[in-house]
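In response to the reviewer comment on reproducibility (Comment 2.3), we provide here a single inverse folding case reported in full, input and output, so that an independent group could reproduce the run without further information from us. The structure tokens appear first.
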């Protein structure tokens, strides 16, 4: 690593440590003023962000504004509306004191200190800035490392941060493995990582060596169960939306479908018709770009391993990084496409007759980040939720829960740990300090 960059990283870290010790970030009005300034700067760069998202990931203006920019603004406004209430000490009941003296107990929310936020490539704006505003609303400072896989977006993020904050409060460090390794060696007070389980293990190991608390937002193979009584038209449209948005590069995208055998053929016919209508028979270049040529080759390997199982789509363009919406049928757990999270626009279809057998297969694998079930029978849906576990779940819908600041978002087991969004972000980035006072 360049010596100057190494010195810069260590200097910024020490500056943030020193700034946090001034207690300025503990002032609620300071936090709100900083967030309002950030809001104005962020919106001013909307065009720059949309252009960068188009270059790096092929996102349309409409998609970029909806899933990247507006989600950040909506959550930021929600923070500003509620920070005064959230930051108040919470009185709690007290056990009697042995002396008989009067006792008062409360829980105070304190910032951890200097936080390190590692952003991913798939939603590089939302999944970098949403944790950031959570860290700031809780009173922390932050160092961000955007993904090196979306370089144009990363540069705009850095420009926004530089225009909004002093680097002793919030700073961006660009780089890849080498820079991340150095940053992880520093004694941060809290780490927030969004990315793959494999990299999550590296981050957690580094945090464990210094006993740094952290949140890991990872991923996994999120199942989608379509029961025989499901409204197939709604299921097709909602699964399609959740799967093809961002070219399938969504951590909570439906990874595979488990459908009741009696309705599989009708479901597939409707799905093909929906794709033909939505994308005029060819989605290539219309659902975004895959992040890299290497990932294109990786995804193509799934199709090459079982070409006879591709029933729709399957085309891709290595140079432009486009990949067509693709359906695969007659899939089993032994197929290559079922061995890990796909993270692309390939949707495998499996069938079941006995839901208990299907649930057992799901439960025999790592706990997913999300689980979706389509049915008109509430008892069936409740039974699925009761007999499975996942980070989050939806009934008759996909991925919408991620955009709600009223719901805690996060994984369980290998799909992650820690929850955020809305008040849960404030709590995730806060140390809950118990205080007991005796008169």
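Designed residues, in position order:
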């Amino acid at each position: 690593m360049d010596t100057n960059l190494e010195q810069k990283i260590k200097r910024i870290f020490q500056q943030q440590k020193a700034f946090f010790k001034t207690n300025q970030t503990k002032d609620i009005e300071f936090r709100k003023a900083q967030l309002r300034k950030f809001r104005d700067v962020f919106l001013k760069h909307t065009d720059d962000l949309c252009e960068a998202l188009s270059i790096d990931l092929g996102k349309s203006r409409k998609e970029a504004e909806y899933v990247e920019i507006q989600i950040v603004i909506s959550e930021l406004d929600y923070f500003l509306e509620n920070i005064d209430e959230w930051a108040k000490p919470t009185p709690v009941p007290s056990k009697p004191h042995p002396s008989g003296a009067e006792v008062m107990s409360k829980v105070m929310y304190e910032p951890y200190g200097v936080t390190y936020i590692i952003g991913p490539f798939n939603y590089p704006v939302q999944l970098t800035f949403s944790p950031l505003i959570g860290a700031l609303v809780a009173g922390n400072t932050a160092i961000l490392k955007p993904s090196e896989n979306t370089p144009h977006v990363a540069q705009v993020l850095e420009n926004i941060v530089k225009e909004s904050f002093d680097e002793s409060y919030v700073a961006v460090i660009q780089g890849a493995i080498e820079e991340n390794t150095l940053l992880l060696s520093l004694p941060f007070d809290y780490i927030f990582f969004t990315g793959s389980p494999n990299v999550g293990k590296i981050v957690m190991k580094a945090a464990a060596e210094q006993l740094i608390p952290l949140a890991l937002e990872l991923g996994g193979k999120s199942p989608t169960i379509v029961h025989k009584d499901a409204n197939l038209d709604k299921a097709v449209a909602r699964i399609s939306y959740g799967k093809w948005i961002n070219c399938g590069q969504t951590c909570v995208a439906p990874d595979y479908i488990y459908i009741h055998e009696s309705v599989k053929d009708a479901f597939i016919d409707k799905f093909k018709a929906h794709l033909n209508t939505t994308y005029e028979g060819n989605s290539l270049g219309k659902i975004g770009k895959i992040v890299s040529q290497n990932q294109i080759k990786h995804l193509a390997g799934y199709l090459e391993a079982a070409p006879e199982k591709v029933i729709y789509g399957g085309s891709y363009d290595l140079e432009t990084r486009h990949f067509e919406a693709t359906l695969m049928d007659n899939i089993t757990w032994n197929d290559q496409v079922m061995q890990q999270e796909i993270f692309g626009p390939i949707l495998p279809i499996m069938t079941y007759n006995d839901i208990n057998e299907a649930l057992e297969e799901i439960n025999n694998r790592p706990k997913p980040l999300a689980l979706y079930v389509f049915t008109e029978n509430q008892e069936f849906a409740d039974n699925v939720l009761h007999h499975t576990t996942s980070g989050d779940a939806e009934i008759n819908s996909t991925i919408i829960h991620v955009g709600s600041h009223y719901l805690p978002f996060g994984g369980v087991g290998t799909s992650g740990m820690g929850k955020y969004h809305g008040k849960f972000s404030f709590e995730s980035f806060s140390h809950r300090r118990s205080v007991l006072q005796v008169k």
